[in-house]
What we know:
Blueprint: H1 3-12, H2 14-19, H3 38-47, E1 54-59, E2 69-75, E3 78-84, H4 107-111, E4 121-123, E5 132-134, H5 137-155, E6 160-162, H6 176-185, E7 191-193, H7 199-209, E8 232-236, H8 240-243, H9 251-261, E9 264-268, H10 274-278, E10 282-284, H11 291-304, H12 310-316, E11 317-318, H13 335-340, H14 351-358, H15 362-374, E12 378-382, H16 392-405, E13 439-441, H17 445-451, H18 457-460, E14 474-478, H19 482-486, H20 490-498, E15 505-510, E16 522-525, E17 534-537, E18 545-551, H21 564-574, H22 578-582, H23 587-601, E19 616-621, H24 631-635, E20 649-650, H25 654-662, H26 687-692, E21 695-700, H27 714-719, E22 724-727, H28 728-732, E23 741-746, E24 749-758, E25 765-769, E26 807-813
Parallel strand pairs: 6-14, 7-13, 8-9, 8-12, 9-10, 11-20, 14-15, 15-16, 21-25, 22-24
Antiparallel strand pairs: 1-2, 2-3, 4-5, 4-16, 17-18, 18-19, 21-26, 22-25, 23-24, 23-26
Amino acid sequence: MTIKNSLVSQLLTRRKFMKTSAAVTGAAAAASSLTLPFKAQAESAEASLSKEESIKYSACLVNCGSRCPFKVHVKDGVAVKISPEDGVNEAIFGQHQIRPCLRGRSARWRTYNPDRLKYPMLRVGKRGEGKFKRISWDEATTIVAKELRSVIDTHGNEAIYYQYGSGTTGANLQGRNTCKRLLNLAGGFLDMHNTYSEAQLNTIQPYVFGQAKNIYGTEQQTLFAEIKNSDLVVMFGQNLAETRMSGGGQIAEIYDALAQSNAKVIIIDPRRTDSVTAFDSEWLPIRPGTDAALVAAIGYTLIKEDLIDDEMLKQYTVGWDEKTLPASASTNASYKSYILGHGSDNTAKTPEWASELTGIPANRIKQLAREIANAKAAWISQGWGVQRTQTGEHAARAIMMLPIMTGQFGRPGTNIGTWGGSVGYPLSGLAIPNPVKVSIPCFLWTDAIVRGTEMTAAADYIKGKDRLSSNIKFLWNYASNISGNQHSDLNRTHEILTDESLCEFNLVWDNHMTASAKYADLLLPDVSTLESDDLINNSYQSGSYHYLVRLQQAVEPMWENRATYDVLAEIADKMGLKEQFTEGRTYQQWVEHAYNEVRKREPQLPSFAETDGMGIIDRRIADSSKHIALKDFRDNPTGNPLNTPSGKIEIYSEALAQVAKEREIMPGDKITPIPEYHPAIEGIEDHAMLEKYPLQLTGFHTKGHCHSTYSSVAQLREAAPDAVWMNSLDAQSRNIKNGDIVELYNDRGRMRMPAKVTARIMPGTVAAPEGAWAKTNKEGVDVGGCINRLTTQRPTALAKGNPQHTNLVEIKRV
């Protein structure tokens, strides 16, 4: 028998030999039983001729902002190829073929990855050592039921925390919603608010424009399709050619819109990203954390060159100048006074002042101001990386001021300085309300383990209660690599997680032996997307294009992997909750039930039986003219007031002024009623730290993995290798050449990876991709290349959000 045919035989008979395997101890259990190279897997599957190839429909459900459906080619029960679904008409956007990116195309390699978890496993060593023994599913479900009941009885439901994570955000029924259903039936859990991605932006935006009035918030984010009506596009730190690069993402919408308008595109970013090339853009390099200074200097030019319509701003805003300030504001507290230097800092925000901070020439700042003011329709937007800094709320709000000052809002082709809107396809699911109404900022979960009962609404942005009643004692991780990888300051996080006197039980449920999985007390193997059934829509960032897809299992679950629903039903049974949990339905019946609920709203859809083998069931394209941010308000501000206290755009926010009085903040933090540039801790003005660590370290998303998902796929590591970007000048002064292995370090830790020496990044700034799996050597150096070995756990002042793009480091050649 050849190696190829032998592997096919292994895959087809896996249950027989895996069920008879002996118990396995250690992290090696995750990689046992399937160790032949990926190439052999692919070649052997392709060589199998015993059956005809069949087509199944699945999707890539990771958190890139898209949920690209695709066809799975199956032979002898093995996925041998991933290909796009057929389009309708390639020439028409919305009917185009949805081509998954290289990550989605790698779904089968991820499914057959050697680090797949295969059996339930119980920790036998110290927490974090990654030592486990194999146990049965009956033992595993008994342990979960027992530990849940013990924590609830001893500490209350508030001691259970469902860890934030994005490994399968695209799933509707399979996974996290099912987990939360069981926890809610058991009395609930400590919830979280915000995200690691956009906490600062989402928290500050309502203070400016009010809360969104519909579920998608599209009246506060113009669809990218409106760029077809723009003559100028200005993007701050927005790299859609990589973060939304798939066929189901917003990139196809932007290409289509730019082809119609031929708008000039300017991208402001510390790196010359792929979007600069993709959109034929001008690149304006900027130092991280200085965006608010740039906006203020643009405002200064607009004022001095009489390019601002004060009467228009009086009609639509509060707090632009002294005439529009609320009565409670102090003298010279307006944004205009701040810009002109009449405020408390007595500093005029001239282009020369901003140039020193941003690195952008003063003349170019003046020119940019004129370009925006004189554009017929200027689109202004920001990526989420801008606000993922220690002063992120200030930067995010400042960028929102640009379209307001120039009147570039509420009209075709304009946006309001936010990301860009999406229109979803609503689905029915398994969700039920959480009886526990208390939540914490998701970034503060380590704080809630260590000092939960000390955390308060005033100091820590707790919602639903003045003070937590318990520390976190039970950590439920489903499809989340936050705990040991995506959280900040991993050395400190390691100390917290390995102290078993703090968090009493850590459940990890995942596909692979991730960095976080090694901290599990109980480790459960989950089915992959190719092994699942579900009903999904496209994601929260797919733009005007939205669709409905039915996933049908492409391959049988391997080893002892089981569908989440079936495992949870077993746990529910042992807790006396099975009837409420299942409502008498199997998982397949829930999929059909969810579809029929959609069909009540959309009666033109085919019957559930008729969707067998369909893949995409329905596809639609939204009319972008009906999704222009603040259009109704712009047309009639009196008849369509905003959902703010004043009913207007609040450049000065009395609500924020009150928060500034009440919020307990750390030294160096600042909350202000107007957008201000504020120097960051570990920013370009932290001179004491710069003496020791002279380089600003920021992070970025890469084509090779989505956050940490797909990071262990060897083919993707080869196609899109992780490397730290550094400018040629910084490299030369450190005797570093392109491709050298370098060590990045600061007081929090040390991390190694290859260097990419390039002119495509600002001098004094280095950038490392986020998402690589953490792995330390005997010296405690992270040789996995995980940026979060170096990032800080100090949250932002207002949102208590993720500050992971604000770090100072030094680099040396290894």
